[in-house]
Amino acid sequence: MIYNRLDVYPVPKDKAPRYINEPWLIDTSILEAGTGSREPEAQKDNIRVYIPLDINKKAILRRLDRLIARYDEANEENEADFLEDVSMLISQIEIYDQIWYVRHMPSEGEHSEEASDLVREFVERLEEISDGGAEIFPFEIIEELKREYLANE
User: Fold this and answer.
1) pLDDT digit string, tens, across residues 52-86
2) Average pLDDT of the segment spanning 111-134
3) If 132 and its partner were Cys, which of 33, 65, 73, 150 is the partner (CB 3.0–4.6 Å)?
4) Could you give the CA distance from residue 73 to residue 82 in angstroms, rounded to a whole number?
5) Cα distances (Å, whole numbers) of residue 133 to 73, 84, 124, 137
6) Which residues have CB under 8 Å from 129's CB, separation 6+?
7) What's the pLDDT tens digit per position in 28-58?
8) Phi, psi of 132, rounded to the nearest 5 degrees
9) Do 136 and 83 touch, CB atoms closer than 8 A?
C-alpha cells in the first residue's frame, strides 16, 4: 500500500512553487532543540525533502480553527504550546503578505491588503478563544497583530 506519492518533477508541471527554506514551518521540534538552522541536519542518514504547503487565506484560517478546536481554551498549562502553534501560522501569514505585497507594490503601507484582510479575520478568531486563565496568550499576539497589520483602521 502506497501512502506517499513522490512527484518526480522538481517543479510541478502546472505551477511554479516558491521555495522557502524554513523547515520549522512544519517541524517545530527544530526550534525546541534550539538549532533553528536552515541547513540540512548533519546526520549521515539524513534526507531533506521539500513538502508542499499551500498558503492562502482559507488554508491559514482552517489551520487556526483546527488549533482552536484542539486546545479548546487558553490556560496556563497549554498557552506555551498554543502560542508556538499559532506563531507558526503567523510565519505563514508573513510569507503570504510578502508575496502579495510584491505582486501589488502598494504605494502606501508596509503590508498587502490581502494580508491585512486575513489578519483581521485571524484576530477575530483569536479573540473568541476561551480564556482559561492564560497570562500571555492570545492577548499579546492579538495586540501585536493589530499594531502591525491593522493600525491604520
Assistant:
1) 888 999 999 999 999 999 999 999 999 999 999 99
2) 96
3) 73
4) 9
5) 9, 18, 19, 10
6) 68, 71, 73, 74, 138
7) 777 666 666 667 778 899 888 878 888 999 9
8) -105, 25
9) yes
